[in-house]
Specification:
Layout (H helix, E strand, L loop, with lengths): L1 H13 L6 E2 L7 E4 L2 E3 L12 E6 L4 E6 L5 E8 L5 E7 L4 E5 L5 E9 L4 E8 L1
Parallel strand pairs: 1-10
Antiparallel strand pairs: 2-4, 3-10, 4-5, 5-8, 6-7, 6-9, 9-10
Length: 127
Amino acid sequence: MKKILLFSVALLLLLPVQNITADDDNKTVVLNIDIYKTAKQLQRSFVDIPIECYYVGFDSSVVIVFSEDIGTVDISIVNTSTGEVFFDTVDAKDGQYAVGISGDDGTYILQIGTESGDIYEGEFTLN
């Protein structure tokens, strides 16, 4: 039974990141970006993610909300269609941070790296 439960949890952790789409006609939409922790080893329990992210269409920005102080983090957002990279380093104790992006069509990969080596990832699509 433990092996089945461990396999189920591992499978859930390895599922692809959910794509979220925003249409050009509705640039005021706010999209939730699902964030997943990249684990160095299989987790025996669900991981609490101390980060929430949203794309805000009216000002073409990604808002990152930190629910706890996880130290200084590196934020990288890459538009895989155009190759544009948006990068910044911020302190999570500030609570939230907005990263301005171009808002161009494409699939964006969001990565947040902590001082302790944890990496959180998310993906969203604008078209």
